[in-house]
Design a protein that fits this description.
17 helices, eight-stranded parallel beta sheet, binds zinc ion
């Protein structure tokens, strides 16, 4: 563990934090990030778990205080220096921020300035929000496709560089695309969708405001457009898999449901690099896909702070099958900076534990690969 702390980590999937994070006083409010539940009772119980108790112990040790109440007092009287200390303790040097989930959070530019000049911040761009904007604003399919192309082509002009795209298909009807294979054969071909169908889907979307699998031909067409762009621009596409909130059914987030899609596009040489995010509890499944298809990468974000006591076992399962060049580090931190800290802290301790049987040079080589080098090469940062 001691040697691993010197490796500066790249967190390949995280979010910004609550704009009032330093004003959180009650334990029950603070620990709400340790559950994905929206039920008030579950949020209140989140602090009473093995995971929360281990986090409390580590925070007290790291900040040299004798009780968690003291930690909360230190925190409340602090400034953004507190976030710097947490991120330094986890050697968290670079963060890829998905700003598509940001209610009550600091805007990306503000979060970057809070993180300071010594930390690198990059943006991950949500595709579904773009698709919805394009369909809402454009009354022809051609206009919609042009809008999507232009927006994607201009992503690199912002102050914060965009290094990946992201799809939340799992939240929009699930990853079961296998029953949509007829559409896959013409994946990304505008001729596959008659203008009248576009008008009909657009009419539905103007009411629901959300694109989902009930608009499968249009959704797949726009994903095809985005994938073509991503492949040409060497931008990886992150895909939500595994655990998340109950807007998605966990079973529909099993990455194996993507295999027909992955296999078909890989054979057609139409598949950009995909990063299967979170993947827990389907870690073995994700590791299998990453061992089969060169385009597939994966991480254990979210699990890294939400199911921390299981992380070393998950890292073992991941590395048991997939090449270590395919596993990435991620926190999926959000709301409180302790989530980013806890996610990356556990990646280090989990790697140290999972690689116990290795000699030090091999342990360091694999840890460096997972914590930093793989993301650096994949996202070209
Ligand atoms: Zn996330």
């Amino acid at each position: 563990m001691t040697e691993l702390i010197e490796i500066k980590a790249i967190d390949n999937h995280a979010h910004s934090i609550s704009s009032d994070y330093l004003r959180v006083r009650a334990e029950s409010d603070f620990f709400a990030f340790l559950t994905e539940s929206s039920q008030p009772r579950m949020k209140e119980m989140a602090g009473r778990s093995l995971n929360a108790e281990l986090l409390k112990e580590e925070l007290c040790r790291s900040f040299d205080v004798s009780s968690f109440e003291d930690y909360m007092t230190v925190r409340a009287g602090s400034s953004h220096e507190h976030l710097h200390k947490l991120f330094d303790l986890a050697s968290l040097e670079t963060l890829l921020i998905d700003d598509g989930f940001c209610q009550g959070f600091f805007e990306l530019a503000d979060f970057a300035s809070i993180c300071g000049p010594d930390r690198r911040i990059y943006r991950v761009f949500r595709l579904e929000a773009l698709f919805e904007e394009a369909i809402t604003g454009e009354d022809t399919l051609q206009g919609c496709l042009t809008f999507v192309r232009e927006k994607l082509s201009n992503l690199s002009t912002g102050a914060i560089n965009t290094v990946a795209l992201k799809s939340v298909l799992a939240y929009r009807g699930g990853l079961s695309l296998s029953d949509k294979l007829p559409e896959l054969e013409s994946f990304g071909d505008p001729a596959s969708l008659p203008e009248a169908d576009y008008t009909e889907f657009r009419g539905e979307l103007l009411k629901s405001r959300r694109i989902d699998s009930s608009h499968a031909p249009l959704y797949l067409l726009l994903l095809g457009e985005a994938f073509r762009f991503a492949k040409g621009a060497h931008l990886p596409v992150q895909i939500h898999c595994g655990l998340g909130d109950d807007d998605a059914l966990l079973e529909e987030s099993n990455p194996l449901k993507l295999q027909p899609f992955i296999r078909a596009l890989s054979r057609l040489a139409k598949l950009p690099k995909l990063v299967l995010l979170h993947t827990y509890p389907y870690v073995k499944e994700a590791a299998y896909l990453a061992s089969m298809y060169e385009e597939i990468y994966f991480d254990l974000s979210l699990c890294s702070f939400l199911a921390a006591p299981a992380l070393s076992q998950s890292i073992k399962e991941a590395l048991a099958m997939a090449p270590y060049e395919k596993l990435l580090a991620g926190s999926d931190g959000h709301s409180q900076p302790e989530s980013h800290f806890w996610g990356m802290f556990n990646y280090r301790s989990g790697l140290a534990e999972a690689l116990q049987g290795c000699q030090a040079p091999l342990r360091e080589k694999i840890a460096e690969s997972v914590l930093c080098r793989n993301a650096s090469l994949l996202y070209r940062i």
